[in-house]
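Escalation from tier 1.

The customer reports that the assembly of two entities below gives different structure tokens on two consecutive runs. Tier 1 could not reproduce it. I'm attaching the input and our single run for tier 2 to review.
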Amino acid sequence: MSVPLAAPPAGSVDIDRRMGPRLILSRVVALCVVELQKLSHDRSELVTRAVQPALWLVIFGVTFTKLHAIPTGGVPYLDFLAPGVLAQSALFVSIFYGIQIIWERDAGVLAKLMVTPTPRAALVTGKAFAAGVRGLAQAVVVYAIAELLGVRFTVNPLKLLGVVVVVLLGAAFFCCLSVTIAGLVLSRDRMMGIGQAIMMPLFFASNALYPVSLMPGWLQVVNHVNPLSYQVEALRGLLIGTPARLPLDFAVLLVATAVGIVAASGLLARLAR
Amino acid sequence: MSEPAVSVRGLHYQFGETKAVDGVDLTVLRGEIFGLLGPNGAGKTTTIRAITALLPVPADVIEVFGLDVAKRRMAVRRLIGYVPQQLSADGSLSGVENVALFARLFDVPRRQRKERVAEALEIMGLTDAAGRLAKTYSGGMIRRLELAQALVSSPRLLILDEPTIGLDPIARGSVWERIAAVRAETGMTVLLTTHYMEEAEQSCDRVGLMHQGKLGQLGTPRELIDGLGRGPDATLEDVFRAYSGGSLEDEQKGLRDVRATRRTAGRLG
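Tier 1 run:
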């Protein structure tokens, strides 16, 4: 039993040359595996987090479909709303990660992770895609609820794969945004307040509930810089076939996620201090 | 190959106006259990965080097995197993999952992973509890789980920050026993901090006393006690009182730390 625990050979210190994509990928896998394990131990969270999107769909969606109050270009309002609610439920999951990282900091978990041979960017990318895994699980639940309510989503596997990528990127970006804010405020209580304070504006200042053309001018401006809008546009295009600028949407989400990872990793040292 | 496990020369660290570490020189020899002693707020944790490169340190101040911490951060971390002061295992994961995460983060090859995880848990006496969620563990079991996490990568240097804080006496004894057993088995170097002088006297090969950011009084517990000249019944605590001018506990800070640890223990269930 002493063999594996013996000190590693001196040459192994040079493994740290193996930086870059492979190392990042292995850390992303490690942190996503942990997220899946946590999900498998406590599935109740999937259910409690499904309550809010279910209410949006069942009450808001069904009512406004009957009212015909929002012009959606021939698409039933519930179909129009469902991708927006799907994006929103993944957003709400991700915003939680800023609170979680402050909690991990207070509990010593973050320090322990940072003392492993894991560059900060890899740690943040791992967290971001772990948020993506959770967001995806949540999206599956919303997808199922919407199907039950009679929304006809696409079954095209290629488009569904696109949906998976969009949900992952969206969740990753909002996770990084949340971690970045956490790195600035450094307090769990303040982070709770800020999380609440930015979630709803992000949601309302997007095209999740209504088409952009209905928005007042100033809100349209906000909408154009809100990554959630690009996420919703892509999801709507892929899931129900409304017109979407898919290359632009994917590009915005990719760039936003990359910027988010850089910003959050830059602030991680502040959290560890 | 005879460089020391850790060598610190002239370490200073300041948080705003507060000098947390004020000119520390320290050498930890290979294979020894070295205890950094002192009350809360003495600068022990800051010293440790500098050695693990969690805090930015200038070049040529700290070397771990001959590697400059400022220049070879990732390489140094591959050699270190670290257990922070707080009970930091993840309560929502099982024992196996907690240890497997660290096996992955240290690039333990996939083929060896399962075996190494099982072995680390076995050494810490957690085989039977390995499948249970860590939130069902007692404080002492969580500490041992954290030791298993730190050991799964076969580190050459184990760094433990207050390994027995917040534990009951039996759990403390068990943690010390396991640390001693691992050292005996592997010849691993252990650097730890504690403010329990009695435990340090029993378990450390050499100790250094820290007070207000400075390190004085370096040697084996016996040497320090003999150096005091008060006969064989004196203790390390007496040495520390003589060195620091009386204050062993910075009480306010002490209470705050204990509270933080209790909170963590409560959270884990």
